[in-house]
Each structure stands twice: as structure tokens, then as C-alpha cells.
Amino acid sequence: MPLPAAGGLMGRVDVVSVAIAAISISMAVGGAFAQPAGASAGQTVILERAPTDHTVAIPKEALARYFADMDAKKLQTLRMLEGGKYNVNIRRITNAETALVHPTTIDLWVVLEGSGTLTTGGTIQDGKIVGGQSHTIRAGDVEFIPATVPHGVSGVQGSITWLNIRWDNDWK
Q1: If we measure between CA atoms, which residue out of 118, 150, 120, 109 comes closest to residue 137?
Q2: Residue 52's CB: how many other CB atoms inside 10 A?
Q3: Residue 36 belongs to a domain with what CATH number?
């Protein structure tokens, strides 16, 4: 169910903070760095390793700076916290992206700005989903995408931005 429209992006930050805190607490066992901080061409930029001994606040002003920096550098993904088996990202795209499936990774999306069409299920053929279900996603929507479910975004008008909170389901 979409969040109330009142408050815009800034009204949603509280919900986002709760989601990040919930994931951080439940995944507090941590993990090794998947990639080094920073990145070269083609890699995801990582801002910091997710701590295991304290919380991390990401104020709305920081999100606004991250959005502007992503636009200036033409980044589609910014990893704010890397925890090995979990991470917290900003995804910001302007076009359709190739469909994908994660064998062990669950996604939780909180759409902050813009809209597009999310297609899930079916099978991936030549980078597109065949036989899946599609629906519009827009600011305020929350999407839960289980591991092994193909998914992709298309029909982006301008841009769409979402927080992407991810965790693996193969923990021992």
C-alpha cells in the first residue's frame, strides 16, 4: 500500500529510517566487505561498511546530496551501507534496465521519486521478462521481491529513485 502523499520525500524518510534500522538490527551479525570502498568504472560505489555496534542515521539532507552527486556522476546505484550479506542502496534510473534475478538475495524497495513499470515473475529471455506480471510503481510504494523472482523496471518517465534494502537468505 502506498504511503500518504503528504510530506513528499521528506515525509517518507521516517519510514525509510525504520526500514534501515530494522534490517540493520536483524542482520547485525555482519559480514565481510563484498567490494572495497569507492569504485572504478562499472563497479558500485560503496560509502561505508555497515557497523555492528551502532546505528547509522541517513538524514534527508544527506539523501538530497547523494541524489545530486549520483546525477552529476551519472551513477545508477550508490551503496550507502555494505554489510556483506546485506546492503542499503539508492537506485536512480532514467531508462528501462535489463531484467535480473538474484538466486539468494531478497530486495525491499521504497520508491522515493518518480514512477515506472515493475515486471516480476515469468522467465528472462534476452534481458526481458516473458510471462511475468507488470504494475506501475510510484513514490510512496514499497515492493518486496523474494530471491529467485525475476524483476525489471521499464516505462520510466524522466527518472525513478528508490531505496533498495537487500539481504541474502543463505545465512547459516
Answers
A1: 118
A2: 12
A3: 2.60.120.10
Q: Which residues of the chain have pLDDT under 70?
A: 1-42
pLDDT for position 164 = 98
Residue 150 is assigned to a structural domain of this protein: yes
| Structural domains in the chain (count) | 1
Q: What is the model's pLDDT at position 24?
A: 43
DSSP tally for the chain: helices H, then strands E? 2, 10
pLDDT of residue 171: 85
Question: CB under 8 Å to 156, separation ≥6 — which residues?
Answer: 93, 94, 95, 96, 114, 115, 116
Residue 44: per-residue pLDDT: 86
The greatest distance separating any two alpha carbons of the chain, rounded to the nearest whole angstrom, comes to: 44
Burial of 94 (0-12, 13-18, 19+ CB in 10 A): middle
Whole-prediction pTM: 0.76
Neighbours of 44 (CB within 10 A): 15
- Residue 22 covered by a domain: yes
Domain with 133, as residue range(s), is 8-167
